[in-house]
């Protein structure tokens, strides 16, 4: 195990604090994503999209069933 891995395992808070201090020193308070929506808004959008996807998949299954019925009727 490398020294860094051991530090992360045994002292994750210390590693996090040092890493964040170093990043803030080099980058500052601006991370370049200020124009992006907040995390809560993104989570809400993801939940809405997943709900829409579920509804669309159900509609797709229904349409496939109807197409199969029509195809079966045409073959008879």
SSE layout and pairing:
Blueprint: H1 3-10, H2 12-27, H3 39-75
Helix pairs in contact: 1-2
Write structural notes for this entry:
Residues 39-66 form a coiled coil. Keywords: Coiled coil. This protein is an all-alpha fold and 76 residues long. The protein has one domain. It is 80% helix and 0% strand. It is built from 3 helices and no strands. The longest helix is centred in the last third of the chain and has 37 residues, at 39-75. The chain is elongated. The relative contact order is 0.05. The mean pLDDT is 90.
Structure keywords:
76 residues; elongated; mainly alpha
Short description:
Keywords: Coiled coil. This protein is mostly helical. The chain has helices at residues 3-10, 12-27, 39-75.
Structural classification: mainly alpha
Number of domains: 1
> Between the first and last Cα atoms, what is the distance in angstroms?
69 Å
Secondary-structure element order, N to C: HHH
């Amino acid at each position: 195990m490398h020294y860094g891995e051991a530090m992360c395992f045994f002292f994750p808070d210390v590693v996090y604090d040092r890493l964040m201090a170093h990043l803030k020193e080099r980058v500052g308070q601006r991370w370049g994503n200020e124009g992006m929506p907040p995390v809560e808004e993104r989570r809400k959008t993801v939940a809405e999209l997943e709900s829409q996807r579920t509804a669309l998949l159900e509609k797709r299954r229904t349409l496939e069933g109807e197409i199969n019925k029509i195809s079966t009727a045409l073959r008879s």
